[in-house]
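Appendix B. Extra example for self-study. Work through it before the problem class; the solution is given directly after the inputs so you can check yourself.
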Amino acid sequence: MHNTLSTYALEKRDKLFISSMLELTNKKFGINWALDETNAQVTLVDVDQPTGANFWEAYQSEKKLIAFANTNHLRASWFLEKPLRVQPFTELLKKLSETLPLVATEEVGRAEKTTAQTRGGVQRTLNESAQHYDPVHYLSGVLQTALLAQQAQVVSFSGFDPLYLVPQEKRCYTVTMNLTRLTPAQKTLFSARAEQLLQRPVTLEQARSAIAEQELKPYDIYAFIWGSALLSADGRLLTGHSMQSFVRLKQWPNFTHLPREPAHMKLAAFMLKNAANIPRIASATQLPLATVIDFFNACALSNLLLTQKAQSTSPTMNTTQLVDKPISSEKRGLLGNILRRLGRT
Amino acid sequence: MKEIKLVFTGSMGAGKTTAISALSEIPVINTDVRATDEAALRKERTTVAMDYGEMTLSDGQKLRLYGTPGQERFSYMWKILMEGALGLIILVDNAGEHPLQDLDLYLTHFRQYIDSTSAVIGVTRMDMAEQPGLDEYYDYLAQKELQLPIFSVDVRDRDNVVMMLEALVAMLEFAY
Amino acid sequence: MLSNLEKVQTTQLLKSLLQNTSEICAAVVTTLDGHLCAKEQRDEYALERLATMGSTLMSLGDTITAELKMGACRNIISENEGGIVAFMHINQDLVLVTLTQQLNALGMLLAHSRRCAAEIAKLLHNT
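Solution. Structure tokens for the complete assembly:
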């Protein structure tokens, strides 16, 4: 049994934040709220947006609405001040819970946990869509949300040392870890789902003191986002992207500090010089589609991609044309020999 | 049989000799001499002719690894050593006085070769000097209309050197 | 590397070398890392570059002889269509490069250059 919330006219980052915060507040404050965009009891409306203001005008008498704005200029009874912060958001939900009846879990899809796909013992919900990867359900989304909210926090995952997120420094801290050679156990952290992670907000001072006390090592937070995207998507394309978009790499991923596989070098090399869609990248590099998609996701979340909708010339993508100039089989053999000698095949 | 060789070039003290040592099966043959100029403040010895190392490939062929002298006055050696090279690795010492100017020197000199084949760039000693950051290197490459891999590397770590070679091989195979 | 006085004195010794042996066209003293210290010539040669290349060749010579366990490299001789170039150590830090356009003057070139190198070494040792 729980309460349901939907959003209207919110900016993407706010939606992401809300989604993440719900998971956090539910665990921490013993409330039970779920997002339900089709049949919610309450709707959070960004009334600073023109569409949000119109929505408010049209439905304020019919629906239970929360005004989300810089100031409560509409004198709404339920108001949430921008920017989004954990504490006021939680308090508002708690107060609302007291005024609303609970609805049965089955109604909003908790019972949808019926898919055969599982990871780490946790079933994947149908909400996520079999075709798309939504980082909000994984470690990558937790990290992104922390960056957006600029809120330091400690993340715990079963059997692991704590992971301190310090978005102010764009870093996270944990015990010594070789990101380029993750152990199978470490990989489970990177593929972890958000609900497997226990998040607790801490002050910057608390984080810094714990980091110093435990002598934790700093890591680029984007390296963790990269790793999580690579290891949790399972070949599902990042939500909001198309297989047919033409993409090229803006710059080479700094693999020195990133989880990587030999295939990623091929992909980076091809995508640095050529703009192509995902199927074309897979055929040119002769790599499985799932590998290409996982790499694509990681690049997209790390802001390394230049994208265009279709194959056309663009001032920012001057290498759209694919140059089909295959190297000789002799040279290909030689390059393969070098990789074998380096132990990278 | 045609010689198969890779060339490491870049600024003095960037770690060319160390990078070749990390890969070579034989003790690296080098032509280091005592530095007598302002360079001696940064590095006691400097390469004046070449470094040379070898790796044996699975079919018995030798992959020859050459390091060039870093200083521009030895640029005649750059041309000699690049003759017929399979690929180029440029190392830049980020703790040097003008790392981007250093990179400019090598890119300008080797531009024709890079345009017809490829190269990778390793930025060393970023732990000692965080600036310029990799973004500034990419901005610089964009100005030059070049798309090359750039890494922050510690050439004392063999894995880092292997990674640069891996990237170079990928660029030679796929980035044509 | 060399003080001004040492440079003047070294240049004087190179002058004497060219005065006493008309076959020698130019002489250069360079550091082993390629910096020109002193020069004397009859014609216009690119002696700065010769100095740098001299250091490269001498260093290669040292590397080769060390590789072959043949002891110290004494000279490197480049016999060419238009003359002969000789490279030799003055001491562990300096190299003397001399050249002649006479194709049959190798012995003379080596003998006089060797003596000049020894004189420079002695001069620098004493100063």
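Self-check: The longest strand of chain A covers residues 3-8. If your reasoning did not lead you there, revisit section 3.
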